Amino acid sequence: MTVRLILAFCISFVCAYAFGKIYIPWLVKQKFGQEIKEIGPYWHENKRGTPTMGGVMFILGIFIACMTAGFQSILQGRLVHLFIFAFALVFGAIGFLDDWEKLKHKANLGLSGWVKLALQLVAAFIYIFFMIRLEYISSHLYIPFFNVSVYIPIWLYIVISAFAIVGTVNAVNITDGVDGLATGTSIPVFLFFVAVAFLWGDKFLEAGIFASAMLGGLFAFLIYNFNPAKVFMGDTGSLFLGGAVAAMAFVYDMPLILLTLGIMYIIETLSDIIQVGYYKLSHGKRVFRMAPFHHHLELGGWTGKKWKEKELFALFTSVSLLFAVLSFLGIMRRY
């Protein structure tokens, strides 16, 4: 197992990094640059024109790693790593359509919110139903830290799970707001999934291969995405990333672990919800200087300290790593 997981990481890293050397100049040549929201921090204006859709880099690296490091499993008919990839790729495709609309109209508005929501819900329902039929997951809801499972009627489990997946995907997307933030926040998440594969053994080898490939791809992408970013992942990358996080939690049959493992995604999303809700109820007042939460910190919210992008990266990655360790402690006694 160890050799195949290391192999998946290395192949994904090398392929994503090497492809970036060709892909980023091509994006620049095609003028596939990011548009910046006018309501955002004024210093983000210098990011205008930075190439987007960079998520294609790690998606390609992950695919090659899954097909090579996971080739023996494919021959044995163990395809869960390909199922995870295919599911995440559907969300990546939705993100690609969104990015394309933005590039076509030279604006920061892509597909309508309702269209994206509908497409994501359909994808989530199909995935959950498919994985239950193949018995990769069950309708017994595992509760981390308490090490117990609670039965939920299958129809209710599918409905709740679909909305949980869509929520997770969009929470990851919201986190992608400054250089390297979604990348750094997600690296500890997939490190957790790799560690769980080691802990639980060969039954979860294929899930571990995907998680390790994801780690390699993200580390390679971070070289280009760290502040000052040479490329953004775009919705192509962030929705793929969100789909991968959600899919992994369900493949390990412990979706509730996302409450701790995805703490930074949750904080970012809640800040957005609170801001919009309070703004409407109070007729124009705000809780945060700007939502999501990373923009609040950028603008010196509460303490007056204006966090720089590298400081935000360090903060989010550190908190994510801390909660990844906590999450690991919460599932250690399961098997």
Number-wise, the strands total 2
**Class of secondary structure makeup:** mainly alpha
Helical content class: 55-70%
Our Rg estimate from Cα atoms comes to 19 Å
Question: What order do the SSEs take from the amino end to the carboxyl end, as H and E?
Answer: HHHHHEEHHHHHHHH
Strand order of the largest sheet: 1-2
- For the record, the count of structural domains works out to 1
What's the end-to-end separation, in Å?
18 Å
Could you give a short account of the major beta sheet? 2 strands, antiparallel
Low-confidence stretches: none
Query: What global shape is seen?
Result: globular
The fraction of residues in strands falls at under 5%
Put simply, the count of helices is: 13
Q: Which whole number gives the mean pLDDT?
A: 91
Structure description:
This protein has 335 residues and is mostly helical. It has one domain. It has 13 helices and 2 strands; from the N terminus they run H-H-H-H-H-E-E-H-H-H-H-H-H-H-H. The protein has a two-stranded antiparallel ribbon with strand order 1-2. A hairpin with a 4-residue loop joins strand 1 and strand 2. The mean pLDDT is 91.
Quick take:
The protein is mainly alpha-helical and about 325 residues long. It has helices at about 1-30, 55-70, 70-75, 80-105, 115-135, 155-175, 180-200, 205-225, 235-250, 260, 265-280, 295-300, 310-330; strands at about 140-145, 150.
